[in-house]
Amino acid sequence: MRPTRQFLFKHPAHLIAFGFGAGLMPKAPGTWGTLVGIPFYFLALRLGGTPAVLASALILFGIGIWASAITGRALGVADHGGIVIDEIAAFVLVLAFTPAGWFWLATAFVLFRIFDIFKPWPISYFDRTLKGGFGVMFDDFLAAAGAIAILLLLRSFL
Question: Could you give the CA distance from residue 82 to residue 26 in angstroms, rounded to a whole number?
Fold first, then answer.
């Protein structure tokens, strides 16, 4: 089943899971979903600083488990490529550890996409073995951890 705009509005979980439409992009929906994380980050940062960013990443993680589970069941594919709430939530977490500035934001974006796309071990293991909404979300949070680790290393050297 190829999801449509109408599918998104059949259930709030679909709209959330598909990143408010970003997941409908025909090419690279995960990249588009990652970009959707940027306004969430800036809104949370403005509302309450880094603690609010961390809290919003955790809230998005919880909502993402629910939304991706419902949407995956409706599509018959647990981790459909259009489900991008995992990228959104995980990238918000990455940005909580990203130094200020456009260079760092772009670096964080590239690092996260590399970890999310290539899924080095143990990310690939959990991507294969964990199913359902938690599985959809968890491998992206591991990708976020990898990106955060590299960001912190880069920051200490630069």
Answer: 9
